[in-house]
Amino acid sequence: MLVIGIAGGSGSGKTTVVKSISEHLRERVVVIPQDAYYKDSSNLSDEEKRNQNFDHPDAIDWDLLCKQLADLKAGKTVQQPIYSYISCSRSKTETTTVEPADVIIIEGILIFTCKKLREQCDIKIFVDADDDDRLMRVMARDIRERGKNVEWVIERYSRTVKPMYLQFIEPSKRYADVIVPQGGHNKVAINVIIATIEKALREDKKARETK
Q1: Alpha-carbon span 179 to 211, nearest angstrom
Q2: Where in the chain are the domains?
Q3: Mean pLDDT of 11-33
Q4: How far is CA 67 from CA 75, 97, 117, 158, 187, in A?
Q5: What single string gives the DSSP state of each residue in 112-154?
Q6: pLDDT, tens digit, for every residue of 135-149?
Q7: Are the CB atoms for 72 and 123 separated by under 8 Å?
Q8: What angle do CA 195, 186, 107 make, to 5 degrees?
Q9: Number of H helices, E strands in the chain
Q10: Full-prediction pTM beyond 0.70?
Q11: Which CATH class is domain 2-209?
Q12: Strand, helix or coil at 74?
């Protein structure tokens, strides 16, 4: 089993990189999104929710994420939480069943800020992109998928997204084994990553067969 961490700022192109790898490996890969592990905020008022900083490491339930990753590595099935950006809450009745796979991809903006999670990764990839490109992607996504308006996106970007990127996310780049510039548009880098994963899987299979 190979665990791959894919980090990078909001709108950097992480999803495109993950999709490219997943489409190539198909049923051999499972993706664990950091976003599913946001702490439940259903007890907060609407005003408190609006002011919550979702780009700070404290917003993530790292203990649960690391435990479920360890369980998957041990061959166990896990019940991944379901988080809603609309209500800022974690479902109390529903979960997503995740089965172990040859390749586990952990994807999220803050995953390299957690030492325990970094130590569970075999390959760490940081997806890089220009600030202007990231802002445009974040704006398009939040309006299309999360029901926000332009003013809300710009205010949040200025108040939390950019400062947290500079304080936590960009510095975590130093932990990466591979840095992918130009985000998901860098086909050469993506192909190299896929080739590296396939080689590692072949070597792992060969090692198990010779035991």
Answers
A1: 34
A2: 2-209
A3: 91
A4: 13, 15, 10, 33, 33
A5: GG-HHHHTT-SEEEEE---HHHHHHHHHHHHHHHH---HHHHH
A6: 777 777 777 776 777
A7: no
A8: 75
A9: 8, 7
A10: yes
A11: alpha beta
A12: coil
